[in-house]
Amino acid sequence: MFLQGWKDGISAKNSINSLKTGRGGNNHLDRGEPQTGKTRQRQKQRQRLHQKTYGHGTDTWDAGEGRQNRPVQRSRRDIGQGVKASSGEGYGGEDPRGENPVETKRKTLTIALAGNANVGKSVIFNYLTGLHQHIGNWPGKTVERAEGTLFFKGYLIDIIDLPGIYSLSTFSLEELVSREYIAFEKPDLVINVVDASVLERNLFFTLQLIELETPMVLALNQIDIAAKKGIQIDHKKLERILGIPVVPTVAIKGIGVYALLERAVEVVEKGGVKPVRIKYGKEVEEQIQKLTQFIEKVGFKYPARWTAIKLLERDEEIQKQIGEVAPEILEKSRKLAEEIENLHGHPCETVIVSERYETARCIAAQVQEITPGTKQTLTDRIHNITTHIVYGYLIMLGVLLAIFYSIFTFGDITSGYLEDLLYRLEPVFQSFLGEGVTMKLIWGGIMESIIAGVTIALPYIVPFYLVLFSLEDSGYLSRIAFLMDAVMHKIGLHGKAFIPVMLAFGCNVPACLGCKIMETERERLLAIFVVTLVPCAAVSVVVLGLVGKYVGLEWALILYMIDLAIILTLGRIAFKALPGEPTGLIMEMNEIRVPHLKTVLTQTWFRLKEFIIIAFPLIIVSGFIIKLVEVLGYLNLIVNIMSPVTVNWLGLEPEMGISLLFGIFRKELALIMLATVLGNLAVLSPLQMVVFTLVVMLYIPCVATTAVLVKETGWKNALLITVSEVLFALLVGGIVFRVFSLLGLP
Description:
By secondary structure, this protein is of the alpha/beta class. It has 29 helices and 10 strands. The longest helix has 41 residues, at 703-743.
């Protein structure tokens, strides 16, 4: 191995102390002068003067003082350039930000944040970009792309938060997207965020980034947690070994973030730093070098050495691309891989991964010193009990019931309150528009669509995301996934899918959005399909308000049991039908901690904004179309067209077709319209009530859910899911009608 020792350096605890008091420290507190009453008064006066002059943030500039540690500051949105940061060295009393940020031509940089999941990437991203960020999808992919901007040292910097991944292979869409972005988009710099408390595990990914030959700075994050675990890290020594700048940070407190950005800009201005070449064992290294020489001759788009390693690892994507360019190199790589396998007695990819892990272990051993704790910490005890074979499930059940109850209760109360409040506007619209067609289209088509989105989706989406991101940030989400993994594998999913499935009982919309936590496109599509079958709160209104009230609660429970059996059956069928192989659960058990409120609120806000932008237009358009059809008098025509299905096949009353049509808009509208059309629900037979309710539980998702389906899966998959569920609902409804009729039920 290409490793050698250096003298021991400072500890993680000392790193924290140096950050707080020196360069790159917690700049919010370190002003370079004693914090007396007069000093604070002078600072406040200076802040007010600065804000009046420049229109943003806190003045981080001290006239006549040398370089001081300064927090990254956010500019006003109308400046149009993202976050504003201070800069300069030895100002000599002149504010370096005196230039007009609009008129001056800015230099631009692109910096990507890369690292494992739960290492603090998103915290750093949110800290740097504030509200100047955009959440979308990577082109042609269902993987999220988070992008934000900030202004720093004369640069307009575009920050890309890459998905949290553990390798640069192509086992998941996230890994493929990250690899292609770094290799082809070629950001000016990659900031590799690592968790200092599990350094060895994180270095495995760092070594792959080094192999990709990208300009890098390493953010040694969460060194406070490492210190609590008795882990002392010499970051200077780590910097010498890897050949890249290493900056200790505690992102959740903002410690070291300024120094990190400063080093990043410094590296870019110097033209990048060349990391050391990580060498493998002699036998493997010889084969890598042989293959690298062949690849260099064909000028492949990826770095030659990295490509050689990936070919020996039998990376399918690289093999496919090399096979198209130079088939002889692909054949040569297979022969060299066989030689390694003959020497080691293991698959070549296993040998290389083992070598990389050993390299990471050796580096970690040289730069960190671990002092074993004398007693078990509180977080260790919490971890042990939350993953216990008995207590873990009991705690999980209690937590999930509390979450479900709180979200359902909050959503129900808030939805009712908002509905009462917003429907008070109807007389106002009537006074202006009268009772004619215009009123029906404006109020019934547009306003009621908006009210539906506000009163049905939002009361469930907001608490869902608050809970989801709190669970994720606290570390408990990974423990729930671990406990439920075996159960969810029965339908081809792993434990992480249990969260959106469970919360779909509140609302399918946030549940579909929550399926982003699945790693592969196959699993994401399968999870979305399953959650659309889960009866949401609006469906529960129909079940309890119709069957529960008029037929009996026992029949309402039977319908839920039938629906659960259908979910498990269809989930299993979809699992077998979808191409691709299921993946096991590989999820880091990150440290149990108190959720970071700012991070949770920021992520919740951007998810909510995303839903409003994407779903609301579709809700309004579809609602308007339905109302237009009603106003034009085509509903009776539609009833007659639907009669062969609703009357002859399902055994329902002709008018019930209208209710099913309105149920597309909002599921509980199916019950409301049924009461409106029939006048008295008691005129229906118990069998008609059961069949009608079962069809409502299974057929097309509501408009809001359909809008999310289009966004998350694309038009084709959304159409496929919608059509298949409608046909299946009609099939099941007809079968149940005939079977129950023969049995004389209910």
